[in-house]
Write a structure and sequence with these properties.
By secondary structure, the protein is of the alpha+beta class. The chain is built from four helices and five strands; from the N terminus they run βαααββαββ. The chain is about 30% helix and about 30% strand. A hairpin with a 4-residue loop joins β2 and β3. The protein starts with about 25 loop residues before the first strand and ends with a strand.
Length: about 160
């Protein structure tokens, strides 16, 4: 367990002490997709879902999720988020809506969990708003695409 930062020498879960870390610019990008039926894709693109503007609501929900990450993930630090965006790519032929979340801050710890949470909440919101049309939607492929800043440096998912 010596390589796992969220455990002390006795194996107890702890919040990492970041007080000695330098403040650096931190950026994280995460993405994930939801597989939807043709009917769902059409309703989303045409704006005919009864609950409203699916992607607009999912964007706001994802941003709210980013801001609440420390309340949801026990060992996450509360961060001052300086930028957050949620973008969507709709691939009609594949029946997939992809959410991409970018989070930026200046701080002593990264924003990877915030970006992953933003994507997750955005996709869950799409599911919630469209479940009356199709309960068989699948959320898939949530992962960190890229992160920069901090001691561990730059990471790009291959």
């Amino acid at each position: 367990m010596e390589n796992l930062t969220h455990f002390d020498s006795a194996g107890n879960a702890v919040m990492v002490d970041v007080s000695g870390k330098a403040v650096t610019s931190r950026v994280a990008i995460a993405r994930g997709s939801i597989r939807v039926s043709g009917a769902v894709m059409e309703a989303v693109l045409q704006g005919t879902v009864k609950k409203g503007d699916v992607l607009g609501v999912a964007r706001v929900a994802g941003i709210m999720g980013v801001k609440q990450t420390a309340s949801l993930i026990p060992m996450c630090h509360t961060l001052l988020i300086q930028k957050c965006s949620i973008d969507f790519v709709c691939e009609e032929e594949r029946g997939e809506i992809t959410a991409i979340c970018t989070v930026k801050t200046e701080g002593q710890t990264g924003v990877e969990m915030e970006a992953l949470t933003g994507v997750s909440v955005a996709l869950l919101t799409i599911y919630d708003m469209c479940k009356a049309l199709d309960r068989g939607m699948e959320i898939t492929g949530i992962h960190l695409v890229e992160k920069s800043g901090g001691k561990s440096g730059h990471y790009i998912h291959e």
